[in-house]
Design a protein that fits this description.
Blueprint (H helix, E strand, L loop, with lengths): L2 E19 L5 E21 L3 E5 L11 H12 L5 E7 L10 H16 L6 H9 L5 H6 L2 E6 L3 E4 L7 E6 L6 H6 L12 H10 L2 H7 L1 E2 L2 H7 L2 H11 L4 E4 L6 E5 L2 H11 L5 E6 L2
Parallel strand pairs: 1-8, 3-4
Antiparallel strand pairs: 1-2, 2-4, 2-5, 5-6, 7-10, 7-11, 9-10
Helix pairs in contact: 1-2, 2-3, 6-7
């Protein structure tokens, strides 16, 4: 019985700008994406027939609505493969947290099946397939540090921004990404990310300037409706974070720290009131 185990890393947005609403209903974005060490672990095992999903988490669907199933289905149909597969998802990334947890699991399945079925697809070919599953999936296949445009599928690899100390805080709020985008008033956005500056600071490896320049225009919707998120940001800054930002449409907030002692103190403080608090780093 063939088996493969793949890490599926979470992502954070170092910046997120929404440029316009497209005619197809999607939004034109400009974002800087960064993978972090926090990860799910995906085990893919060949079976005689059928497709099944299991997980240690009760918060994710184990049916056809899971992006993991969609990843398997796309690959099986595209390459006319009729082999049974069982997938186990060790879920460590907070669910629906703006950290691409579902997308990174799907990306891991695409990469895993490519190896297991000896398809020999290139990364760019896997990314094209990934886009059929979700806008964040191509980035999750690429990984690292990247500039993303379009709906997130036009990717440019950037100089690595790895080994920066990150604190993640997720209060467990139920945030609808669709609602956040629908409630975003593009004409009222005045404080946008300066992407060109961010690109320069990443190229220089200047953690402090990157952290201070971080912006996410979706905060104007999500944080306005959920003031606790701003309190988390303030707590991170008061405990020495160089900068703090909401990832994606939320509700996860992260902080970049230069001092591990400051991070540990902040983590301890937030754990009293916040559902999920995790220390990690960029990769």
């Amino acid at each position: 019985m063939k088996k493969i185990i793949i890490d599926a890393h979470a992502k954070i947005n170092l910046s997120l700008d929404v440029l316009k609403r497209r005619e197809d209903g999607y939004h034109e974005l400009e974002m800087i994406m960064q993978q972090i060490a926090l990860k799910d672990v995906i085990t893919i095992e060949e079976r005689d027939a059928g497709f099944t999903i299991a997980s240690n988490s009760k918060e994710i669907p184990l049916d056809q609505s899971n992006l993991v199933y969609k990843a398997y289905n796309v690959m099986a149909k595209k390459f006319n493969i009729n082999k049974g597969i069982h997938i186990y998802i060790e879920k460590n990334i907070p669910v629906a947290g703006g950290l691409a947890g579902g997308s990174t699991d799907a990306a891991a399945v695409l990469k895993g099946l490519n190896t297991l079925w000896k398809l020999n697809l290139r990364e760019d070919q896997l990314m094209d397939i990934g886009l059929k599953i979700g806008a964040d999936v191509p980035y999750c296949i690429m990984g690292g540090t990247a500039l993303a445009k379009g709906i997130g599928e036009k990717l440019t690899r950037l100089k690595s921004f790895s080994d920066r100390l990150i604190l993640i805080a997720n209060p467990g709020l139920n945030i609808s990404t669709a609602d956040v985008y629908n409630n975003l008033k593009l004409e009222k956005i005045t404080d946008r990310p300066h992407t060109e500056n961010m690109l320069k600071y990443i190229e220089k490896g200047d953690t402090e300037l990157v952290a201070k320049e971080m912006k996410n225009v979706l905060e104007g919707v999500t944080i306005k409706e959920n003031p606790i998120l701003n309190k988390i940001k303030e707590q991170m800054i008061s405990h020495g974070a160089l900068g703090s930002l909401m990832s994606g449409s939320g509700p996860t907030i992260f902080g970049i720290f230069s001092d591990s002692t400051d991070l540990a103190k902040c983590e301890e403080n937030l754990k009293y009131s916040i559902k999920t608090v995790l220390s990690t780093k960029t990769v």
